[in-house]
Amino acid sequence: MKSVMRKVKNAVQIYRDYGAHSFIKRLENKRYHQRPGLRTVQAVHMVSEEELEAQKRRKFEKDIKFSIITPLYNTPRNFLIELLDSMEKQTYGSWELCLADGSDEEHAYVGKICQKRAKQDSRIVYYPLPENKGISENTNACLQLATGEYFGLLDHDDLLHPSALYEVMKAIEETGAEFLYTDEVKFSGKIEEIQDPLMFNLKPGFGKDDLRSHNYICHFTVFHKKLLEGEQDFYRKECDGSQDHDMVLRLTEKTTRITHIPKVLYYWRVHENSVSKDLGTKLYAVDSAIRAIDQQLLRTGDTGKAASNLPFQTIYRITYELKQEFTVSLILHGTEKPEELEACIRNLEENTEYRNLELIYFAERELKIKVRDGMSLQRIPLDTSKTKAESWNQAVELATGEMMLLFDARCRPIEKKWIKEMVMFSQREDVCAVGPKIYYEDDRIAYAGIALDRESKTGLRFLCEHDTRADIGYEALLCHVRETTGVSAACMMFSKKIWREVQGFANACKGYEDIDFCLRGLEKGKNNVWTCFSELRFTGQEFIEEKKEEERNRFVTVWSQQFDQEQCYHPLWKILRIV
Predict the structure, then answer these.
(1) How do strand 431-440 and strand 527-538 relate by DSSP bridges?
(2) What are phi and psi of 338, to 5 degrees?
């Protein structure tokens, strides 16, 4: 009863503080996150017997052999038997299961079970290790047994979906991928009884910043053996506990042919002492991950340092050194009213630590205000005949800074280092645009990244729009730096160099000038980045602008291929109502 009363009191307070619009939006968000039924969840990962039989009959152009790498150590009897069964149920048959066993004498049954199954199926390769040397060295020994063209990693207490190797083979044939990863789900009982949507790890496409922030790739990972060329060890003992994260960081540096298969093909068992159950049993894994990330930064020439983004031990924050003290040119837009421009500028003065700032604004007359040291003002005469793209291009052309920042005058910084947190990324050669975390005044999420979605009214999907500042988001989406398809012009940083590379803002997609700019950056091989460590508040009522139907249709037509290749949004997120 107390809980109900507290919820009612909170709802009344929101209505009083922020009005009916906010109250209604909160109710809509709560309804959106209602848990789906068991059948909906089952449909996400279970495949009919008819489909499995059809997969078995399919003939591929190539006959690629997969070597599944599984080091064993005191594996519980039932876990081992279920793992072996999951391999023999694979609908793609060209595989070998490489088992290197470091179990002690008390668990001699592990070897007996494996030897018996190896006699029944020649694809099972078993080797008893002379001694147990830990996960990294045991895996390296297991790798010596492999004779396949591609290697896949399967933990000794987990299971593969019967379609796993079939779907991987299908993806290789379609894309020529050299590194592949799939979705996964945690389980502890019967697979068909999995019901909690939050047990599923439904992943976005590959992103360097996302991977540095946490090992979201995890299971099931498959890669071409040539990616191991030049590697002294597959797993490095110094990274025990986070050896998979270290491995993925290293191998993905070696190829651009990386494919995510957006299907649940791996079952990660939750049990006592497993990492999936409680990382607290393996705190050394955190130190290993930080070491692995720092070493990648050294290899790639990115000067920075990783640390846990507390209180989240396994989410990492990289603080990059600035190459120089860049001048940042803020292009204020969204209003030409002197009083609103002045209010915005005064707020920026008070809430911005960064010193080298040039503020460019559009107005009929000069603002009669003085600004602090390290900040300058430049007016562009208001010209209503110019389009939005033309006005922004004019401002960038006149700007003296190396970094540009489109800034809606209705936005207000929350913390003073917000600009530096964005410059960290916009200074990189591989980055097109950078966006911050933006809240409404009632703490609902206004902006946390944008993806393309044909089913959306605007053609855009605003990530985590059903969450609030108090939420961490699905798979902690709101708590780490990651790639995004689009950045909103409400607050979008980019270098003048990038602006020249993509030939500025264009009139081709009216109403979508900012997203069009970001997509042209993607075409150039650049990334767009969202950072949660730069935070602002939006003082308007609706962050998402209404789009005319003809504008939407034009945008979808122009970028049809990019819609098909969307990497920052998973189609199952909406079905399970989690993002």
Answers:
(1) parallel
(2) -55, -45
